[in-house]
Design brief:
Helix content is about 25%, strand content about 25%. It contains seven helices and 14 strands.
Length: about 260
Amino acid sequence: MSNNPEDKSPQQRGERLNRFLSRAGVGSRRRADELIADGHVAINGVKVTKLATFVDAGRDTVTLDGKKLSPPVDEPIWLVMNKAAGILTTRRDTRGRPTVFDGLPSVYSQLVTVGRLDFDTEGVLILTNDGDAANRLMHPRYEIERVYEAAVEGEPAPASLRQLRQGVDLGDPTPARAEAQIIGRHRTGVILQLRLHEGRKREIKRLCQAIGHRVLSLKRVSYAGIKATRLSVGHWRKLSPGEIEFLRAKIRAKQ
């Protein structure tokens, strides 16, 4: 009998590899297929590139770029963290900078983040082992609301806030938009609350810069309605069953 995992039948292998990878937290099944096709995945030391490969989570050792993936937990895992500024949301950093995974138990090392936060941005960060759901919550099609509070230099004029609502050309295929209002003041400017429905790279900072106001500090206070209320900076908690169902309902509403 062949030892090549790609030669095994579905009955012998148990579970499709892309589903295993998604449940292990590497991303959506589409992302898992890309990793398989590009030769990043091995089963029991044998590199696999065929998408229709199956794996037995109880017996096989699966590695991604040489790193072992622990057998995924069957039940869904959803966490919310109040991320601190000065922390990366990547799994690891070649420069040795701290990441959000450094502060999590090792059992959560394969979770994926639902969207990312810049190194110097703090606030709500959701993590899960449900790669498909994470992908949907990040996709612009689902119009998931993100709410931020930005301390900016100076005070934007009403016309500038209207411009944010109507759309700003940031050089992307479509204009970027945000509902913005002034909710407070500080020594050199104001605090803006901004509501967006997609997550482009450095979007808040680029939007504020476009209307002439530099962001001094930035915090995400809500993602898809999930908040980090009563969580100290750097701390995390599990989502309640009601919160998980709330997120899944948002996904179903757009399908």
